[in-house]
Amino acid sequence: MPEDEEFNVTPWSVTGKVDYTKLMEKFGTQPIDLSLTSRIQEITGSEPHFMLRRGIFFTHRDLGWLLDQYASGNPFYLYTGRGPSDHTHIGHLVPWIFTRWLQEKFHVKLIFQLTDDEKFLFNDNLDLEKTHSLALDNALDIISLGFSEKDTEILIDSDNASILYPNALKIAKKITLSTVRASFGFEMDANIGMAFYTSIQAVPAVLESIRLGHNIPCLIPYGIDQDPHFRIARDVLPKLGYLKPASIMSIFIPPLSGVEGKMSSSDPNYAIFVTDSENTVRKKINKYAFSGGKTSVEEHKKFGGDPDIDVSYQWLRIMFEPDDTKLKKIREDYISGSLLSGELKAILIERVNKFLKRHQELREKAKDRLHLYLTSSHK
Ligand code: TYM
Fold first, then answer.
1. Which pLDDT tens digit goes with each residue over 187-244?
2. pLDDT > 80? residue 1
3. Which residues line ligand 1 at a C-beta cut-off of 6 Å?
4. Beta bridge partners of residue 114, listed in sequence order
5. Is the pLDDT of residue 2 over 60?
6. Which atom in ligand 1 lies closest to the alpha carbon of residue 222?
7. Which of 26, 271, 343, 345 is most buried, judged by most C-beta within 10 A?
8. Is 291 helix (H, G, I), strand (E, B) or coil?
9. Which atom of ligand 1 is nearest to the CA of 92?
């Protein structure tokens, strides 16, 4: 991390305690205010998703414009993705759960990109066969979240070169080496595939326009670490006659170790994977979840805990307790000291295991339906 900064966010790593207000300024994105959430409520006729109400999805580019287009009869499609480097962890599910809600409420198509090429290029320990098999594995998690079979296309990069390559070439020709170096901080020992890769991630943002032969707006939900890719895409795509993609971005689920950085596969003890057993979840949370509670029960009862630095509370807020009233009670009881740290952990363990039990069953069933989602079935 550069010495003068207290946090750093790139598509490959997040360090320090992220100040999301500062990050918005740095990346040049707009806050999601009440007027935008009301607009979404008006158009969809539904209460905004809890991730919107709570500011988990907190910033955007051109969302107002996109909603205006939709309201005037020009719908959009959704695009999001995953770099398959391991099993999915629950952090990845944050943008996907929200994307699923958007698909259901706006009745729109989703292109889901699985970038086995990216993870091969950026990780010395993974070969292409491995990242491809992980792409197929991660696809099961997408299907398990309930995305519509008819309206969801899962595009695995290395299987779809004929779609991606000609378009990535046109995009790549408009991006200079100095832009990718400034955006991603590559050093001279970076392989040359790394510099080209961002053009591949830009293609699905215009793929429906290419297929339909006319421009159609695109909305990309993602954790804010992916934003450097889409800043470049928004700069280049209009030069090729396309619309700038709109985006909606979330904060990160923190690792178990504390509210700094983001949950990541590279720290497996501090992440919960969708394949973890009940026992593993219990052990990891009990052992590693950073607590905002006091050191003794007596002190905790007297002075109360701090939910803002308590990972168990934060996971409930970001993902596992959709009910605002229940969350408020947990918060108040923790602050007052009547809810102990161990009890808070027990609530989280119960929620996570309940979610994973169902998810793992759905994952098994998804194996038979995988082929229906792949790009080859949607062409
Ligand atoms: P990847 O696999 O690193 O992450 C997939 C998605 O999960 C988000 N994410 C998180 N969100 C909340 N809390 C966390 N701890 C957390 N960790 C990861 C990421 O922001 C991302 O939205 N290059 C991409 C793959 C990709 C993509 C896309 C992502 C291709 N096209 C379009 C988003 C949109 C990647 O490696 O994501």
1. 999 999 999 999 999 999 999 999 999 999 999 999 999 999 999 999 999 999 999 9
2. no
3. 11, 80-83, 91-92, 94-95, 113, 115, 118, 201, 220, 222-223, 225-226, 250, 252-253, 262-263
4. 82, 156
5. no
6. 22
7. 271
8. coil
9. 7
pTM of the model: 0.97
Three-state secondary-structure class, residue 146: coil
Tell me how many degrees the CA angle 73-79-83 measures, rounded to the nearest 5. 175
Residue 10, classified by CB atoms within 10 Å of its CB into exposed (0-12), middle (13-18) or buried (19+), is middle
Q: Where are the beta strands (DSSP E) in 90-212?
A: 110-114, 152-156
Domains of the chain plus CATH, in order, are 7-256 (3.40.50.620), 268-365 (1.10.240.10)
C-alpha of 154 from chain center: 16
Whole-angstrom distance, CA of residue 142 vs CA of residue 38: 28
Of 357, 352, 378, 379, the C-alpha closest to 148 is 378
The CA distance from 68 to 140, in Å, is 34
- Taking residues 316-325, report their average pLDDT: 98
